[in-house]
Amino acid sequence: MSTRLAARHLIALAIAVLALGIAAFGPGDGNAPAILGLILLTIGLLATSAIPEYLTALVLFALAMVFALAPAEVVFAGFQSAALWLVFGGMVLGMAVRTTGLGARLAHHLAPVFGS
For residue range 17-76, what is the model confidence (pLDDT) as tens digits? Predict the structure, then answer.
């Protein structure tokens, strides 16, 4: 196994250093520089896929709460939306249909009906 870093990891590291610099020395008052640095870090990690996307999201929420960048009601406000849970439920059902093979069986039986 090679210990050499991929280009995406080096880019993510550079973005992380830039985000830390903005969070520590950035313009603005209060939490604004830290929030800007956190958002830049999150976008950089998502863009480079240096770590899995679910872990990037967890890092965003964890850092926002650990450093008290916003109240919990603000940080987790998106989870109160009905649309989020509708999409999440659809993703869970879709994964279940694929994993169990139900989708393939339905396609096999319905293809002759619809002429494909």
Answer: 988 888 888 877 888 899 999 999 999 999 998 999 999 999 999 999 999 999 999 999
- Domain shared by 4 and 44, yes or no: yes
Q: Are residues 42 and 89 in the same domain?
A: no
Which position has the token pair 């319905």? 110
Is 14 in the same domain as 65? yes
Identify whether residues 65 and 29 lie together within a single domain.
yes
51 vs 15, 30, 63, CA distance in Å? 13, 29, 16
At residue 82, what are phi and psi to the nearest 5 degrees?
-65, -30
Q: Are 26 and 58 in a shared domain?
A: yes
DSSP sequence for 25-41:
H-SSSTTHHHHHHHHHH
Confidence of residue 3 (pLDDT cuts 50, 70, 90): low
Please tell me the distance from the alpha carbon of residue 98 to that of residue 85, in angstroms, as a whole number: 20
Same structural domain, 110 and 92: yes
